[in-house]
Amino acid sequence: MIIKISKILNSICSQWALILSNGKIIETSLDDKNFGRIKILRILKTVINDMEIGSVIIVRNLIIFRLTFDFFIFLVGEVPRTVLKNKFNEISAAYKADIMYKFDKKKRTKKVKINSVIFSMALDEGPVPIYYLPEDFDDNDAFKISMKSLLLLSVESSGASSEMISFQPYIDLNSLGIVYLFQIIDSKARGGAYDSAITVLVNYKYRGVIYENYDLVEKTLRDAKERFIEEYNSGKDYKRIIETTLENLDNVSFENVKREDIKTEMIEQVKKLAKL
Q1: Residue 97 confidence (pLDDT) above 90
Q2: Is 214 in the same domain as 152?
């Protein structure tokens, strides 16, 4: 399998490497003097938390393809994009399943148990938990969480006009709340919009891995926010959205790897590293 992948890569580029997310190089034709292992590891550490499976990054003559969660292909050279697409598709179709079986190590990722997801709005009468799961979650606790989540905005002149994520400890529940704040436009609301929040409650012991991987949670909650806004303007079936959000969060594999940067800085970092 590796020999066959190597032949495919050799047909389009003379300089390449097959590398795992833990830094182990499976096979390479790279000249260590010009593009060595340390340089590859630096770049890998920069992109590992931001590249989706099947995605490609091209920076100057550096090409990175994430075949599976743990398996990356590096190419150094100029290759036409159509050729890259065809060859990467060929490799994926023929070998992705075998690569996943042999090299992906899911045990090294950490699963974080989600205790509750709560959707709240600051209505005219004050902060209210609109819907939450699990359904047997304590009503009083849900109300307290809604109050605390939205009171973050009490001193802001424009409320949640800018979307953002924050973290709130809930000492009585021994929990950490990940709070995504946003607004739902409504002409009937005071100021023309309701401040809203999606709060994810996890055991406080997971705070370290949550802080390290906050972007994964933020992306999931940003997607949920869009669905909440759509549903507010239509059927208000919030249960389905929260069920989907819980499922999406449950499927996230949190990496115990500290990030050096966020996605908006990733390409610039790769450019700098590629020059070293």
Answers
A1: no
A2: yes
